[in-house]
Amino acid sequence: MQPQTQLLHQEHWPTTGFDSVQPGVFRASTVFFPDMAAWRQRDWLSKDRFIYGPHGTPTTFELEARIAHLEGAAHALLCASGLNAIALVHMALLRPGDEVVVPINVYPAHRALLTGELASWGIQVALYDPTDLSTLRIGEATRLVWVEAPCSITMEFPDVPAIAAAARQAGVLTALDNTWGAGVAFCPFDLGIDISAQALTKYANGAGDVVMGSVSVRDKSLYDALKRCSARFGLHVPAGEAEAVLRGLQSLAVRYAAHDRTGRLLARHLAGSGAVVEVLHPALPGACGHEFWQRDCRAAAGIFSVVFDAKYSQQDIDGFIDALQLFRIGFSWGGPVSLVLSYGRDVASLRPLAGELVRFSAGLEAPEDLLDDLSQALALLL
After folding, report:
1. Does residue 243 form part of some domain?
2. Digit-coded pLDDT (tens) for 250-264
3. DSSP output for 6-72
4. 313 and 278 housed in the same domain
5. How many separate domains does the chain show?
6. Backbone φ and ψ of 253, nearest 5°
7. Of 249, 272, 292, which residue is a domain's last?
8. For a tag on the chain, would you pick the N or C end, based on fewer CB atoms within 10 A?
9. Residue that terminates a domain, selected from 222, 249, 276
10. What pTM did the predictor assign?
11. What residues bear N6-(pyridoxal phosphate)lysine in this entry (predicted)?
């Protein structure tokens, strides 16, 4: 046998008896079948055996199992991003003529998907105010109701069980963007939600270097519908990226608690600064939906927004942000570095804003250093 042939047909190093902190990383496109009988019995909906790289490897199946366990689900499916997870739910469950109901303050990228591709496919969109459930209208064409708990910019926290109960009574499914809760703050299924989607990009990964999403369900028929759609579109995630999220999950609870503590500390500091007229953080008394957060949640994420006094112009706020040294300007959140972004006054909000809205994401820096950084930048405004 020639050397190049031997290189391709050597037996794999046996792994039986080997155990370590991290699971193995299995990368594959082609997966070998032991015989034709096994090939003929392949089932893309089953995880009993491996079929092809996009179907899954031991690494991606391990991550899906851990995400399902974390969120209190029975099944989970990995997606290329958080937005891809949201899109998969729509593509798998909605058809032309169907209606989806979403909150007015929905995640902007989700809104763009709704008004772009979904509208062109003949799917109708209805809006509701998550702080006023009398606006939640579920009609004959409604097939899906989305919930954000909280909105990721203006931070209103809705009455999730009430929304889920209204949808269930009408025979309609509910889906929740669980990126903020990350499987730590609350269990969406215990609140009556049918589908949980999240961006593993953020808290699950925690390093700011992976883009990935997931969809979790308890109902097997829902999982099958999602898996079929995912397979038909050829959606999958690389094993190396999955392994990075598996590493992140091991410290998720500790990191989430640290983000939570620092976020509340920074929010209170800004509330007393004299430059801010409103702090938007569901865990703080007086915030919109605080009573629902207090009833349903065990913790809070490290993101929050503030509204500055109307006397400060956009130029003033941009100067404040540019003066910050530890808070970096950028999208996303949940990573080790603190972030800040200004959304101005025109962000999709349930009410007019008094001034410029700025969102902060608390990282893992020493809280006292972040407080000092805020103080020196605020001094330019006061």
Report:
1. yes
2. 999 999 999 999 999
3. HHHHPPPPP-TT---SSPP----SB---SSHHHHHT--TT--SS--BGGG--HHHHHHHHHHHHHHT
4. yes
5. 2
6. -60, -40
7. 249
8. N
9. 249
10. 0.95
11. 202
